[in-house]
Predict the structure.
Amino acid sequence: MKTNRTSEHYVAPVEETPLLATDAVKVDDAPLSLWADAWRKLRRRPLFIISAIMITLIIVVAVFPGLFTQVAPDNGCELANSNGAPTEGHPLGFTFQGCDIYSRIIHGTQASLMVGVFSVISVLIIGVTLGALAGFFGGWVDTVIARLGDIFFALPIVLGALVLTQLPLMRENRGVGTVVLVLVVLGWPQMARITRGAVIEVRNADFVTAARSLGVSRIGSLVSHVLPNALAPIIVLATMELGVFIVAEATLSFLGIGMPGSVMSWGNDISAAQASIRTNPAVLLYPATALSITVLSFIMLGDALRDALDPKSRQR
Amino acid sequence: MTTSDVTIEEAGIQAGRPLLEIRDLAISFKTGSGEVQAVRNAHLTIMPGETVAIVGESGSGKSTTALAAIGLLPGNGRVAGGQILLDGEDIAHASEKRMIELRGNIIGMVPQDPMSNLNPVWKIGDQVKETLKANGRPSGPDDVAKVLAQAGLPDAGRRAKQYPHEFSGGMRQRALIAIGLSCQPRLLIADEPTSALDVTVQRQILDHLEKMTDELGTSVLLITHDLGLAAERADKVVVMYRGNVVEAGPSLELLQNPQHPYTQRLVASAPSLASRRIQVAKELGVSTEEVLAPRGSAAVKPALTEDVLQIQNLRKVFKMRAGFGKSTDFTAVDDVSFNVKRGTTTAIVGESGSGKSTVAQMVLNLLEPTSGKIIFDGVDTSALNTKEIFAFRRRVQPIFQDPYGSLDPMYNIYRTIEEPLRVHKIGDKASREKKVRELLDQVSLPQSTMQRYPNELSGGQRQRVAIARALALDPEVIICDEAVSALDVLVQAQVLNLLAELQSRLGLTYLFITHDLAVVRQIADHVCVMEKGKLVETGSTDDVFEAPQRDYTKALLNAIPGARLMLPPEVA
């Protein structure tokens, strides 16, 4: 019986799988750009929600420190309060110098965040431009930029910063500007590398050739087609670097080559806390926690963005 | 292991029962939006020694069904119902341990892509040895060489010590077949085993596979999108559509007498089976006499005689790095000359590496010829200045192969089609939008597509958007570089029809670059056959197909799957 079945000509009833028009366009859901799609994915991810709330809070603290504390951070330090325990109006206690820890953390946010934001913006401008040119044109342009980047890449950040900050001009003008300058000089090659790789991946795509054969110039196709498609990894890296630069600022300030002592910054506070670490670890703990939470928020945001912007997850 | 092997075999032969029987199989996948049914009531039967082909478009569930038979469904997939009977034993829910026993020994597999299915850091021989060892067979160097030699690899002993990158695509596929058949399984699942290969290589590989499985008495489950290939190679064909088996039967009968509307549609549009040029003129109301008049008789339409493109002694030499600052010359295109008449379609046919795409790039003025001339409408294109090139671009437009790569994913469809108009500063915003709407109508896409992004469209729809973009500047010549090769058969037929219709309506000239002779026959008036950079044969399509002059052309024609099937003309 079964052997007969094999030569049978079976036809399924048409009702079971009604024939659809060949290659019909589905017009059900709303159109989705890369960014709309990413946003739809992001707004459901706890990682993104938490980091976004944290970052918003940090920005508000940095811009309006007066909303969070009435205590002036530097005057009003009384040595009588040295290493004092929390009291009414001073929830985190006092430093070795008798200053209010809570107030210092709130006011220190601004410096840290400013260093992070300005460094990232400058690194983006320099790194993306050079990286895009290197990746798009290749050849000797690529070689020169890549080798130049390698030179800066090879300098350890602390050593490089030590040398740079000892230059007379830098020593005299210490502040946010010098720290940003040091971080940008030592940090741009990373961004240039990522951009170069992303651009190389896109530059030979058919849509770039198609644009060229429509009459778009080479630079035109770089700006209007290649760069927008290479943006995702750049944004992810920029978000993460923001955190990294904030840590770097703290490191430099801790070593005494970052912010001058007169500027309130978490790095300076951590540095000053060395003296009383055994007697009153809270002095170290609170600014360090603020620093960790800030950096963690940015890195979490970068992680969430990386997942949401992953092109592999965008196939339908 | 050996004992159970023998008993299964004996039992199977004695009972005369099917080797593999799939009954009412249902497979579902867990996705972000709930369970999706990929396959429903699939059923098929494979007798010992028989070759059965599953045919269907991408997403029809053909590979999923085969993967279920070997227990390799992806992690989010599961068999939701039905039975998979291997010699009477239901393996639909068999333990992983039992499946490992079966894989290799009883069921072998030849995967689709020879480029990614061999481990690049392992020698070929070691990869064969791994399979032999895993199934408890002798795995000395001689055994490995024997297995490879059986799969048709010359000098197998030496070849076994080479790495995958030293193999060509065809040889890699042979190595994969060797691995699949190394333990002499009783069933071989071949998932699109040759779709990544050139037609002549494809033919060799399939011939060899057929010979080997005949000798060993192996049953084959062949998965393919090509109905012609399935009909030619299989005893029985199973057609799948949207996860269902819609028709199954002996291959010739199914081709000659398709019952289900989907199969009828497939048979009607399979390029390897169609032997006629797409006659769109008929639909447009041109008299039958004109349609039936031989294409070559240009006297009817005097406008056709003008040569819009003249290619003269074109040569392109690439410098290849050979280390230490030295370079060797590689001649990609060698002394190619042909003319393209206005309003006709000229196809350049060749296998990979024949230089056909290089010719296209040079005609598009994206690549500079080493020597020779490309004369477009009486003007040598190499002598154009920047401004003239800009004007030239308006008149010659490309359509590329990969529908997933030729549209900027960041641009919505409106911006994509509008870009050429914007670049060439044609019209204002309102008139451009009107033009985009018209173009979408021309390629029969709904106007609502404008706001969508390429990732929301299927391959065929993207290709239609690419056609609309190419048409935006009202060009005279369109260069189609493998424009339909990546599409499913039905979608391919649809796009080819669209191209033919646009040609007759707008008087376009096509230069059609393809490896697929079956497509050439459907669309081209003239054919240029290229081999290794040289032009081997040119002529009108009918002449070349009916009386090929060169051996290479004959070999190419013979290799079209299904070409040897003698079908009554009314079916084709």
Summary: Chain A touches chain B through 43 residues (CB under 8 Å). Confidence is low (pLDDT under 50) at residues 1-6 of chain A.
